[in-house]
Amino acid sequence: xxxxxxxxxxxxxxxxxxxxxxxxxxxxxxxxxxxxxxxxxxxxxxxxxxxxxxxxxxxxxxxxxxxxxxxxxxxxxxxxxxxxxxxxxxxxxxxxxxxxxxxxxxxxxxxxxxxxxxxxxxxxxxxxxxxxxxxxxxxxxxxxxxxxxxxxxxxxxxxxxxxxxxxxxxxxxxxxxxxxxxxxxxxxxxxxxxxxxxxxxxxxxxxxxxxxxxxxxxxxxxxxxxxxxxxxxxxxxxxxxxxxxxxxxxxxxxxxxxxxxxxxxxxxxxxxxxxxxxxxxxxxxxxxxxxxxxxxxxxxxxxxxxxxxxxxxxxxxxxxxxxxxxxxxxxxxxxxxxxxxxxxxxxxxxxxxxxxxxxxxxxxxxxxxxxxxxxxxxxxxxxxxxxxxxxxxxxxxxxxxxxxxxxxxxxxxxxxxxxxxxxxxxxxxxxxxxxxxxxxxxxxxxxxxxxxxxxxxxxxxxxxxxxxxxxxxxxxxxxxxxxxxxxxxxxxxxxxxxxx
Length: 500
What we know:
Blueprint: H1 2-18, E1 31-35, H2 45-54, E2 59-62, H3 67-72, E3 79-84, H4 89-94, H5 96-108, E4 116-121, H6 125-128, H7 133-149, E5 157-159, E6 161-163, H8 183-195, E7 200-203, H9 206-212, H10 219-222, E8 233-234, E9 241-242, H11 245-259, E10 267-272, H12 287-302, E11 317-319, E12 367-370, H13 376-387, H14 409-424, E13 437-440, H15 487-499
Helix pairs in contact: 1-11, 5-7, 7-8, 13-14
């Protein structure tokens, strides 16, 4: 009994740590892109920068510090993450002079024209090249000291990306801890991140977690799609609802950090995505799933909230990746993570052109209302989507509120459609709803029921580097906070936990 109570007290202490302040990151979440180079006929750096410009991509991660690419990115304003390759870590970790030379050659030489903001030291070092792990923190320290000597430490941060493999049991998130064999190294890494005001880099792939789960989790959960209430996922310890696997993986990382008694270290997702094609043994690697995942990821980032345990900290992410890398080895899916082919054409349709911040004074194109001739069942489905995962404010059409009467499906759908449209128009929302909606320039307001429109849209939104999916696609937003107990949900999650 006392052992159990002790464990529970420890868990709640971790929860308290999680809700302590986190160091500052940009107030708005962003979606950036990884740029790999194992590509036949890779576009020139100038052409790549042109592609970034066309799509208004504002954050990129390079897997090296290629001189031509850094030169091409000069004066673009794009925030750049450069990388120390795994094979360079030993030398930099052993000799401070090599770290100083690396900073001079790959960072200081390009600032301020090229907007280098972050150095990624290796990639998944603890799990992919464990023999380098003993000097990883030394390499990070040497690079940071070189930045300090160059008066660049306040603008350029140093960190190192980790795979989810360092957290052997990520579900439920509140019970997650790092693999104990890496505790010593992880404590040193976290101390460095805290001392230098940096952040934890996470490579989070719901695709792999779904495949490994052998059907325990629904595919919809991995793709950010809403689940029926009986299948929704609640952490049995905290009763926090997890609407998608991505948020659960990020929170598992926050809880793992807290388990080592650290707080105030934000998590940035340096890689995430979904493959668009795979072999016979990879049935979930499809263009449709990849499109759904990335569209919904973009929409998830647009709401500027964090995972359930950190709702006020936006999740910044880098999609993996810009191009399909056809030189990668098997499995086939490894060559098909890109959103573009090397010629710049789209692997699948992804609306990722940036848009300006939506404000109360943004001008919209009229009002979005229900088509008078729309099929009733389709109209009801559109209304349910708008008030549900579309997160329109449907309170005014509830009984006793100003827009309830007339109590018709047409009237209620018009109000919900317009509320969604006005809020989301500025970053890609459309007036469609499965063909049941139309734009009108006639203000549908009546009596005390006011429809927002033109310059009186009421909610302010900020946009990521990419635009979110159009209104007709599935794109749920995270709702944070402590939720009521749902016995069926909790039992299913708890049984899964025990099965591990």
